[in-house]
Design brief:
It is a single chain. By secondary structure, this protein is α+β, with helices and mostly antiparallel strands. The protein contains two helices and three strands, in the order H-H-E-E-E. It has a three-stranded antiparallel sheet, with no helix packed on it. A hairpin with a 2-residue loop joins strand 1 and strand 2. The longest helix has 15 residues. The two termini are 27 Å apart.
C-alpha cells in the first residue's frame, strides 16, 4: 500500500482509497490499449478476487516493490509519502 501496509492486511475500501492515476507521459495515447491490457492481465493474475469486489471491480494495478518503486514503459516510478508519485524517464542504456 502507498502508506506502507501490506496489501493483504487491508480491506477493499482501503485499497480503493489509495489508488492513483499514472501521468499521461508514462503511457502516451498511442500505447494506452497495450498498457491497459498488460496491467489488466497482471492484476487478474495477482488480485483475481478484485473482479468480484464492489470497490475494486475494474481497477488495475501497477505493483511497486518493497522500496515503493517499479519500472514501467520506459520510466522509473517511485512513491514517496512526502512527494507522491515520482516519475523519471529511464536512460536508454538502463
Amino acid at each position: 500500500m502507498l502508506d506502507g501496509r501490506p496489501i493483504e492486511s487491508c480491506n477493499s475500501k482501503e485499497i480503493a482509497e489509495q489508488l492513483i492515476r499514472l501521468p499521461g507521459r508514462v503511457v502516451p495515447e498511442y500505447q494506452m490499449l497495450e498498457a491497459i491490457e498488460l496491467l489488466e492481465t497482471q492484476t487478474l493474475e495477482r488480485f483475481q478476487s478484485w473482479q468480484s469486489d464492489r470497490w475494486l471491480h475494474g481497477a488495475i494495478s501497477l505493483v511497486l516493490d518493497e522500496t515503493s518503486q517499479t519500472r514501467f514503459n520506459g520510466y522509473k516510478l517511485a512513491y514517496s509519502s512526502q512527494y507522491g508519485l515520482i516519475v523519471e524517464k529511464e536512460d536508454d542504456d538502463d
